[in-house]
From TrEMBL:
GO CC list: GPI-anchor transamidase complex
Swiss-Prot/TrEMBL GO biological process terms: attachment of GPI anchor to protein
Domain of life of the native organism: Eukaryota
Name this polypeptide is given: Glycosylphosphatidylinositol anchor attachment 1
Length: 611
């Protein structure tokens, strides 16, 4: 503090920053990239462990022997599903009641802002069914959830296993928490309606209307979402992230991983095998990049993600049946789930001892927030170094300009010349946010397009048309003031985002920081080229291409390849991001339109500035 409070020392520091600004910017940017590449390696990554000792009882011998019953129930469920052409609510009520569960149903309706052509739905109507196993040793103050999403052509075995487990759990006397077996329709929409009703939240702003639940349990402590579509499984894949990059407490995936090791069931993450020693760095980086891309998309990995929004630690378990020889039966998987819920039943308080912010290079190692945060910090400091240099250029003339402005027209104050660009940039951001929903129906009727395509093309049209606005200034120093404001706004935006969703902030910082630093009228060609690469549309397009390339299954069959196929998938993702924001509350689209796009547009004005 003494160094900064002394005027002479402060001036020396400022002169050092100005004299070596370019070198410091390059050094910090390179340091951030290299640091990220080193994250999968020790000591930046550490071995995983269970922090909460109360979770260990689940490792003891399990007693579940209901494999044949689970198989029989899954066959009955599939037959009744085919008979009614949807969720067999009456059969579920009858079966759960016969197993001794307390059964309640909930009806819900969701009106989407425009048709979801991918899932072929618009006005959604559905029913959720919950069966409750009441704890014998407590007064319904806490509860655990075993969630089985209803899928029209899959997940029958998960339903049978959940019902068989509920029948087994009801016979045990050690339960201190209620157990809810929850069956929901219409994937994320159904679980959102149930969670809203359970916690008494009004979701009409998201287009959700639902009936009240007939029965309630205590505070939800944890939830497991189960996906199982075959009689055997070769591996269990952990699905981690929820909406807007939320993650469950690290103890929960560590618990499931340890139980899988104990049961000799292969456990994976991102559907990739554990890294091998001969290629450990790339395989670990592959897993970590897939997790980062998933969090950056702000879309939940599965239905479990919406529990995280309500501070309920949740995890998705997806059973995979591949060509591997070692296969786990329904009974073995049931014992695995029994161990998970027995461990969760032993918790005396909420998950809190392990990390809520982390990256997983593998299930055997993790990178904590203290080790990965410097990556983004090193890159973001470049924006503030550049801002200091610009401020230093303006500061020597500050007093002279102030005296001249006071003696002349107040409109000659330098910073007034950039207010128009700032207001226009943010106004266009608001137009890009609201325009697709306001004008998509008219565009669909005029061009004879499906409404979801009209939404995407309307957003694209607004974004492209904003590039043609005039960029003329009134003072020679106007572009410096505009760039200074844009750098500070972009830096604060990415810094705040880094605390909430590191992967998204880091992936945005990599292209936008160099473009922001280089942008100026004297380097017009380089500025335009870098800004085009750093535009929100190109960033999202590159993210989609990277995710497609890293996906272990590759592109979905039937999709076009090449740039045309990528562009068509990008248009679908654009309409889906708008739909998910309006119906699920994800924040990717408003972040791009109300935050990133205005900053980028101001820098675009700087690059094309004319006196």
């Amino acid at each position: 503090m003494g160094l900064l409070s002394d005027p002479q020392s402060r001036e020396r520091v400022l002169l050092f920053l100005i004299r070596h600004n370019s070198k410091l910017c390059i050094l910090c940017y390179a340091l951030g990239l290299v640091w990220f590449l080193l994250l999968p390696l020790p000591p930046l990554s550490a071995p995983t462990y269970i922090s909460e000792n109360a979770l260990l009882p689940g490792l003891v011998k399990r007693e579940f022997v209901g494999g044949p019953q689970a198989l029989s129930l899954s066959r009955e469920f599939a037959a009744n599903k085919a008979l009614v052409g949807g969720l067999p609510v009456e059969w579920l009520n009858k079966t759960m009641t016969s197993l001794g569960l307390e059964v309640h149903t909930q009806t819900f309706a969701v009106d989407l802002p425009f048709p979801d052509e991918i899932n072929e739905r618009y006005h959604v109507r559905g029913t959720n069914v919950q069966g409750v196993v009441r704890a014998r040793r407590a007064a319904s103050t806490e509860a655990l959830v075993l969630h089985v999403p209803f899928l029209p052509e899959a997940n029958d075995q998960a339903m049978g296993l959940a019902l068989s487990l509920a029948a087994h759990f009801r016979k045990q006397v050690y339960w201190a928490k209620d157990l809810i077996v929850l069956v929901t329709e219409h994937d994320l929409l159904g679980i959102q309606a149930w969670l809203g009703a359970y916690h008494g939240i009004n979701l009409t702003s998201l287009g959700v209307r639902s009936s009240e639940l007939g029965g309630y349990c205590g505070a939800l402590q944890a939830a497991i979402t189960l996906q199982l579509s075959s009689d055997v499984a070769t591996s269990i894949d952990l699905q981690l992230h929820g909406p807007n990059g939320l993650l469950p407490n690290l103890d929960l995936p560590n618990l499931v991983h340890h139980l899988c090791l104990h049961a000799k069931v292969l456990c994976t993450v991102q559907e990739l095998l554990p890294p091998q020693e001969d290629n450990a760095w790339w395989q670990s980086m592959h897993i970590m990049l897939l997790q980062a891309l998933g969090q950056a998309s702000t879309k939940p990995a599965s239905e479990h993600g919406l529990f995280l929004r309500h501070r309920v630690e949740a995890l998705g378990l997806k059973a995979i049946n591949s060509h591997r020889q070692e296969k786990a039966s329904l009974e073995k998987l049931g014992r695995l789930l029994e161990g998970v819920f027995r461990s969760l039943n032993n918790l005396l308080e909420r998950f809190h001892q392990s990390f809520f912010f982390y990256l997983l290079p593998s299930l055997q190692s993790y990178v904590s927030i203290g080790n990965y945060a410097p990556c983004a910090a090193a890159i973001l400091v470049v924006l503030f170094l550049c801002a200091v240099e610009l401020w230093a250029k303006l500061n020597p003339e500050k007093e002279r300009r102030t005296r001249e402005a006071a003696a002349s027209n107040p409109a000659s104050i330098p910073w007034l010349s950039v207010i128009g660009s700032i207001v226009i940039a943010h106004g266009l951001g608001i137009a890009l946010y609201l325009g697709p929903l306001v004008a998509h129906q008219r565009a669909a009727n005029y061009f004879d397009l499906p409404e979801d395509e009209a939404v995407s093309l309307t957003a694209l049209g607004i974004g492209v048309s904003s590039l043609s606005l005039p960029h003329r200034g009134s003072t020679p120093q106007g572009w410096i003031w505009l760039k200074l404001f844009a750098l500070l706004e972009l830096g604060m935006l990415l810094l705040a985002l880094d605390l909430l969703n590191f992967p998204l902030a880091f992936m945005l910082a990599i292209p936008t920081v160099p473009a922001a630093v280089v942008s100026q009228p004297s380097h017009k060609t380089a500025s335009i080229a870098l800004l085009l690469v750093a535009s929100p549309a190109v960033i999202s397009l590159m993210g989609l291409a990277m995710k497609t390339e890293l996906n272990p299954h590759g592109p979905t069959s039937g999709q076009l390849g090449g740039f045309i196929g990528l562009f068509l998938r990008w248009l679908q993702c654009l309409s889906q991001s708008i739909l998910e924001h309006q119906s699920l509350g994800t924040n990717l689209y408003p972040l791009f339109t109300l935050g990133l796009f205005p900053c980028w547009l101001q820098l675009w004005h700087v690059a094309l500035w004319k006196e």
